[in-house]
Write a structure and sequence with these properties.
289 residues, 7 helices, 24% helix, 3-stranded antiparallel β-sheet, alpha/beta, Rossmann fold
Length: 289
C-alpha cells in the first residue's frame, strides 16, 4: 500500500521542487522492442516512507483510505485476501481479523522487512514480488484483494491489473484506491480562492494527457530521492480494468476529513473539502467463467 505519501497536494499531494514531466505511452500500446521493466520498488525511499507511514498508517490512511477499503471489501472472515503493493503491511494488519488468511506483496524487500517487524497476526504472510509480474502468486486462489494508493506508482498498468485479476478466484473482488485523477494531478492541480464569491475552488491545468511526474521525498532538496507518479485520465484506468477482465461494481469518491480553524476563509475551505474529492475508490469483480 502506497498512500499519498506524496503529503499535501501530493507533497505519494504535490512535492516541491517538481522535476520535469513527459507524456507516457498509453497503457497497452505496442512496442517494437520491449525494454526491461523499469524498477518501481521503493527500496531507495523505504526509510523515508516507513517514517512517514509507520505501523498504523498516516493521517489519511487511518481516517479515509483504510476504512473505505475495508468497508467496500465486505470480508466474511472466512476468505483469503491479497494486499498488492502492501508497503509496511498497514492494511494487512487491519484486515487480518476479518479474513482467514492475508498475504501482503510488495517489490521492496525493505518495506516487507518492516511489515514483518510490525507483526500483526498469525494469519498474515508477506512476500517480495513485483506487482507487474506476480508469477505463481497469480494462481486464482484469492477471494478478495486490495491495491491501495499504488497503481499510480507503476509504469505498466495493464501488467499490474492482469496480475491482480489472475490472483483472484472467478467472481472474486478487489478494491482499488488511487489519487482522484480528475481533481488531483501533481503539479497540474491546485487550490485557489475567489475573493468575490468568498469560496475556494479547484484549478486543473492538465488532465487528458498521461504524465510521468517525479515526486521528491525531500521537498526543497534538488538532491533528494524520487519516485514517479503516473497520471492517467479516468478513461484509461477504466479501459485497463476492462482489458484485465475486472468489472467495476461500485465506486466511492473519498473526501478530506480535515476542517479549517475559524477564520476569514474557513467556511469556503470547508465547503470545498466537502465537495471536491481527494481519492477515488473502485470496487471491481473478476468476470466469472
Amino acid at each position: 500500500m502506497k498512500e499519498d505519501s506524496h503529503g499535501k497536494e501530493r507533497r505519494r499531494f504535490g512535492r516541491r521542487p517538481w522535476g520535469s514531466q513527459r507524456p507516457t505511452r498509453p497503457s497497452g500500446s505496442a512496442h517494437a522492442h520491449k525494454a526491461a521493466p523499469a524498477r518501481t520498488d521503493w527500496d531507495h525511499v523505504a526509510s523515508w516512507y516507513d517514517r512517514l507511514v509507520g505501523e498504523e498508517g498516516s493521517d489519511y490512511h487511518r481516517h479515509v483510505i483504510l476504512p473505505a477499503a475495508l468497508r467496500m471489501l465486505e470480508l466474511s472472515g472466512r476468505e483469503k485476501l491479497l494486499d498488492l503493493c502492501c508497503g509496511q503491511g498497514v492494511f494487512c494488519r487491519l484486515a487480518a481479523p476479518h479474513a482467514s488468511a492475508v498475504m501482503g506483496v510488495d517489490a521492496s524487500s525493505q518495506l516487507i522487512q518492516a511489515a514483518r517487524k510490525y507483526g500483526g497476526g498469525d494469519n498474515i504472510s508477506y512476500v517480495v514480488a513485483d506487482a507487474r509480474d506476480l508469477g505463481s502468486l497469480a494462481d486464482g486462489s484469492f477471494d478478495a484483494a486490495a491495491c491501495l494508493m499504488a497503481l499510480q506508482d507503476l509504469d505498466d498498468l495493464d501488467a499490474a491489473l492482469a496480475g491482480l485479476a489472475g490472483a483472484l478466484k472467478s467472481g472474486g473482488r478487489a478494491v482499488i484506491v488511487i489519487m482522484h485523477p480528475c481533481f488531483r494531478v501533481p503539479r497540474q492541480s491546485s487550490w485557489g480562492w475567489d475573493s468575490d464569491k468568498k469560496s475556494q475552488f479547484r484549478r486543473l491545468d492538465r488532465y487528458g494527457s498521461p504524465l510521468e511526474i517525479p515526486i521528491y521525498t525531500h521537498p526543497g532538496s534538488l538532491g533528494g530521492q524520487q519516485t514517479v507518479f503516473h497520471h492517467r485520465p479516468l478513461d484509461q484506468m477504466l479501459s485497463a480494468l476492462g482489458r484485465a477482465g475486472l468489472a467495476v461494481v461500485a465506486a466511492e469518491e473519498l473526501y478530506s476529513h480535515h476542517t479549517s480553524q475559524p477564520g476569514a476563509h474557513s467556511r469556503g475551505e470547508n465547503r470545498a473539502r466537502a465537495e471536491i474529492p481527494i481519492f477515488l475508490a473502485l470496487k471491481v469483480r473478476k468476470n466469472e467463467k
